[in-house]
Amino acid sequence: xxxxxxxxISKRFGRVQAVKELSIKVESGKFTVLLGPTGAGKTTTLRIxxxxxxxxxxxxxxxxRRITDLPPRERDMAIVFQNLALYPRYTVxxxxxxxxxxxxxxRDEIERRVKRVADILHISHLLDRKPAQLxxxxxxxxxxxxxxxxxxxxxxxxxxISALDAKLREEMRTELKRLQSDFGAxxxxxxxxxxxxxxxxxxxxxxxEGRIIQIGxxxxxxxxxxxxxxxxxxxxxxxxxxxCEVKSxxxxxxxxxxxxxxxxxxxxxxxxxNGYPGNGELxxxxxxxxxxxxxxxxxxxxxxxxxxxxxxxxxxxxxxDVGGKLITVKAExxxxxxxxxxxxxxxxxxxxxxxxxNGGIIF
Length: 363
Description:
Blueprint: E1 4-13, E2 16-26, E3 31-35, H1 42-50, E4 57-62, E5 65-66, E6 77-80, H2 92-102, H3 107-121, H4 136-148, E7 154-158, H5 166-183, E8 187-191, H6 194-200, E9 203-208, E10 211-216, H7 218-223, H8 228-233, E11 240-249, E12 252-257, E13 262-265, H9 268-274, E14 282-286, E15 291-294, E16 302-311, E17 315-322, E18 325-332, E19 342-347, E20 353-355
Parallel strand pairs: 3-8, 3-9, 6-7, 7-8
Antiparallel strand pairs: 1-2, 1-4, 4-5, 9-10, 11-12, 11-14, 12-13, 14-20, 15-19, 16-17, 16-19, 17-18
Helix pairs in contact: 2-3, 2-4, 3-4
């Protein structure tokens, strides 16, 4: 197992700043996911870790040893890319065994290792086939097997399952997490898919425009996003984000959301403990599943009209027009309102968020 630390890594390609003072710790024996949109710097970060790119600034450390200048072959890391790059004329056995053959390992040891890896990946029955005879998921397992057989310090996986269909992606998420746990390996995994990150990671590092935005457990990332980018990017659908202002009335401070779409009382203890920045540009946030729908108006209910309904089997996504602003609600599948129907919604008060003028979280 291995622990990797990237310290203030920067990399530029011409005028493009791919990575900017990026620092991250990949813990030994853990599944760390680098999550971000296309062009965020994920692949560059993995390539720098592997030694395929050299950073302009910063250091790469493996188990406390600086390896920034070491070539890839001396880092003992295995990388799996999205395109998999299997040898088409080799059998599955030979594809998996190829790293050991290059090292000149004897045949008996190669066969022992290939059998062990194939058993772990449930592909023992495929060893005599060639890549053209395999499904997408089977090819993925072969590529993983070729990486695993080296018994490397670290696995680097760059969007390895993004080309698979939805059902195969679900299966491979489960398999990858199981493999990482059973194998006791260190995984550093890059993806733009928040579902992959949330389902597999021990630690998620959210990256955007070459910078790490937030690092935490899936629960921390989801329930306390560092800013509006993380709040919107993580979650399906993402968090509702609306401009708002803090105002004062006879009964105390309140949030004017929209503005002028609806108002919410501001708990005094929150205002006192967080020190709101006056009436500056603020953003109100709440996740779709933290909005309740009432059959009849109540004391805390807000009136709206159904704008559109998206049926997704186990639940429905309902867009509600409230004072000219659209709010996304995750509702039970039994709730099937008509377009234009008047409904009432309210928020779980402990689940609402407020962000400052720069998008950073206040609470």
